[in-house]
Amino acid sequence: MADIANIISGATYDPMKDLDGVKDAQAAGKGKDGKEVKKSRIVHVRITQRNARKSVTTIEGLNPKISANKVLRHFKKTFSCNGTIITHDELGEIIQLQGDQRENVSKFLLEEKLVKKTNLKVHGF
User: Fold this and answer.
1) Which DSSP string corresponds to the chain?
2) Number of structural domains in the chain
3) What is the CATH number of the domain that holds 35?
4) In 15, 58, 72, 97, which residue has its Cα 20 to 30 A from 51's Cα atom?
């Protein structure tokens, strides 16, 4: 019944909602004992639905040392989809791919050791 209440009230699901906690943790940068903690970047792989059956997969939080252009070029070629890179002030470079590419992207990032499994978070519906 809660789902129907959300539909009636007009409440929507915000896939970027969990970013607030990530920003707070990155801003602190210190552990319980007051020592500096090595910051580990969490890579978020999300899917958002555009309209009808169309969807977009976004990858954010990749290490800035990694060339997003090379990664995008590889994604486009192997997954047979189109994509683009969006530059965001706070989040850095975000890769957008057409279609639901969550499994393909996460598998590639883990196989190429660009991201540790503990630092990869796959979101979806």
Assistant:
1) -HHHHHHHHT----TTTTHHHHHHHHHH-B-TTS-B----PPEEEEEEEEETTEEEEEEE---TTS-HHHHHHHHHHHHT--EEEEEETTTEEEEEEES--HHHHHHHHHHTTSS-GGGEEE---
2) 1
3) 3.30.780.10
4) 72
